[in-house]
Design a protein that fits this description.
Oligomer: single chain
Number of helices: 2
Strand content: 35-45%
CATH class of the largest domain: Alpha Beta
Number of strands: 8
CATH architecture of the largest domain: 2-Layer Sandwich
Order of helices and strands: EHEEEEHEEE
Radius of gyration: 16 Å
Strand order of the largest sheet: 1-4-3-2
């Protein structure tokens, strides 16, 4: 496993995991329900562009306890303060990934563009309040 893995909290993790499959071509590795009978996801494990992302439902009744470390889920109106960066192999992949995410239901924050830091870059917000950035290094200029 990588040394750092984002663990995102969402409202309705089951739907979010299915959404990430469409929006980001995620692969689901595991889905563990909470044994409280409420059908919430206690732990979801996904791979996106070769990296791991863990997903869980909001457990507001357990927030600020040692039980599961749950925090409040963000929303599109109040997005997460932390963003995900999906590193793409080529500049054209930024455009294709951005289009796939927007077509799936993400909201455009920043359309694909070439940046001053020599990358093709775009940003979307998913329906669960998480910001996703697409980035690919541009070819070096001679």
């Amino acid at each position: 496993m990588p040394a750092v893995i984002p663990y995102i909290t969402v409202s309705n993790a089951a739907d979010a995991m299915d959404f990430y499959k469409k929006a980001f071509a995620a692969t689901e590795n595991a889905r563990m329900g909470e044994p409280d009978g409420k059908k919430r996801i206690f732990h979801g494990d996904m791979t996106i562009k070769g990296g791991s992302v863990f997903v869980m439902d909001e457990f507001s009744e357990k927030a600020h306890t040692d039980e599961c470390g749950s925090v409040a889920a963000p929303s599109p109106a109040k997005p997460s303060a932390t963003s995900m960066v999906l590193q793409c192999e080529a500049p054209a992949d930024v455009d294709a990934s951005y289009k796939q995410a927007v077509d799936a239901g993400c909201v455009s924050v920043s359309k694909p563009e070439d940046t001053f830091w020599n990358a093709r870059f775009a940003v979307v917000c998913d329906p669960y309040g998480h910001i996703w950035m697409f980035n690919a290094e541009l070819p070096k200029k001679n």
